[in-house]
Amino acid sequence: MDPAREAAYAVIRAVHAEDAYTNLALPAALTRHGISGRDAAFATELAAGTIRRRGTYDAILAACLDRPLAKVDPPVLDALRLGAHQLLSMRVPAHAAVGTTVDLVRNHVHRGAAGFANAVLRKVGARDLDAWVARVAPDAASDPIGHAEVAHAHPRWVVEQLAASLAHHGREGELEQLLAADNDPAKVTLVARPGLVEMSELEEAGAVPTGRSPYAATLPGGDPGSLPAVRRGRAGVQDEGSQLVALAVADAPVTGADARWLDMCAGPGGKAALLGALARQRDAHLVANELQEHRAALVRKTVARLGDAVTVTVGDATTPAWEPASFDRVLLDAPCTGLGALRRRAEARWRRTPEDLATLQQLQARLLDVAIASVRPGGVVGYVTCSPVLAETVEVVDAALARHDDVRLEQSQQLWPHSDGTDAMYLALLRRS
């Protein structure tokens, strides 16, 4: 068997059968099968693309089956999804896509299922992706949400939430572009941590400055971990949207002292490292708090080069150990659905449910109340989510403003993958008077 397809299939099975995460399962599978370079890129697209576009492929496979999709043995169904991705979304010759998938089924399931897989995939290969979508998706005119659900492989409730957010921000006509952007793998973006590395060093390694964050550069290809600056923690991998919201919190004017900063939910540490580097240059000190010890360990590793400019603490931010009104700047990167980072998290759209919103909104509200209580009068709070969903962004902030008459909204910003080239980061900058 081809090692790249073996690795991809192993990742898909781990994600669907064991609730693994694609970005964690992939490196292990690549190492296990001895894959690197172009073969690693091929395996990555096989696995992540199949998982990301699962909803579209399931609708197409259902039209090619003589039984309900739920009646297909899960290992066989995952192989069929992998074959469909090669046939419909990759430049893989049909005979190779079908033949290698049939071999996977024969080797990992049983011979009897191989003939079944062969017959189904030959039906799938009879049409291209556009023709299949036109056949299996609801009519775009009468049911635009249903059409988008199938055409762009997003659960219906996610499409509805994203459409509502676009409408709120005056971007009603951009749903198709947003959903399409969610299905394009994100570029690798580096952050040159200020005071630790110059942008010129990253440029010499082939990175290209983005022009928005002064510390952001995209890496056209290769393993970012091979760069000395990244390997030694002077630079890191960080979406430009994450950089922009952290910079907005760091650069907002404050009255009086500007010496104590807080990152309330710091794991895994990307924003803490950027804030800590800036704090170090300004003779300020950052407290980076994280609820879970294993995530706090990631924060410690990420900020290790910043010395005593950053203190990492472990604790529940809803019942903080620090004194009220004791910080000049507070970043609350709140736990959220992560629906703004679907480009990076292939499985996330299939794991989140509408019920998650209510639970997360309650937590977000509690954390924002603590953030407001933690900042002194004249200081600022940055409320950030990697989600554009109104229930996690505008509604949380509006409710907090109604509860706190000594807080005002100074700035809000919603970034979008299709127009900004970043994750869909939301920022509300609040000032306590």
From TrEMBL:
Enzymatic class: transferase
SUPFAM superfamilies: NusB-like (SSF48013), S-adenosyl-L-methionine-dependent methyltransferases (SSF53335)
Keyword Magnesium carried by entry: no
Active-site residue numbers: C386 (nucleophile)
GO biological process: methylation
CDD domains, alphabetized: AdoMet_MTases (cd02440)
Gene Ontology molecular functions: methyltransferase activity
Entry similarity comment: Belongs to the class I-like SAM-binding methyltransferase superfamily. RsmB/NOP family.
Name of the protein this chain belongs to: 16S rRNA (Cytosine967-C5)-methyltransferase
